[in-house]
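Would you mind writing out the residues of a protein together with its fold in token form for me to study?
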Amino acid sequence: MTEKKIKTSSTLSSGRIILSLLIFAIIPLVHALLKALTGDDTVAYTMALNLSACLFVLYDWNLFGVHWNRFKARLGDGLLYTAVGIVLISLWCYADRHFLSGFMLMPDPAIMHRYFFAIGAVLLAFSFCQALIVNISFKCLTDHMDIRDRELLMILVSGFLFGLLYTIAFAPLQLAVFVPSYLFNVVLVCILSYLYNQSSSFLPGIIAMGSVYMVLILLEFLA
């Protein structure tokens, strides 16, 4: 019973939720401004994602502490669902690359080669920073939703609702790209929500998504 309360009860104030979601919402605006200044999509997103992730960490530091303690308290479950997440996200990304062709926010390998000195910042931004932003944002968005003891419904609501915001924020708005991108993001966020519900922490989702995205970026860079 205690475990179920941890998963479903609200732990965040309305003000913290609103400000956290505003941090997510400003990413496209910061990206647009930086792209106008630098003329490059990858450079602009690298700076915008790293900045946003830093703001999330600073503002939600106590939340990180809560989820780190949950992860440590149930370390076996945390590691298990991190591994499950890596497998599920890897399979879904493979399906996207070979069948769905939804948009994934990834850096341009040519830009990474051009600015090799900054490759660390690029890798971090598009992998673990992006994973951190997604996991905390969908958690904040659904935190006050009273869907107790309905784990599947919470997972689906997280996927469809935050998947839509995530797609609007980053994917091209052409219908032929938007629809498969939305489907990709819905399933991705559902996977992350499942990991959160099973482990009571967003750390498995951050580690799993960040690790898979980093490997994909390196594979494209080395290709």
The radius of gyration is 17 Å. The chain is about 85% helix and 0% strand. Residues 75-100 form the longest helix (26 residues).
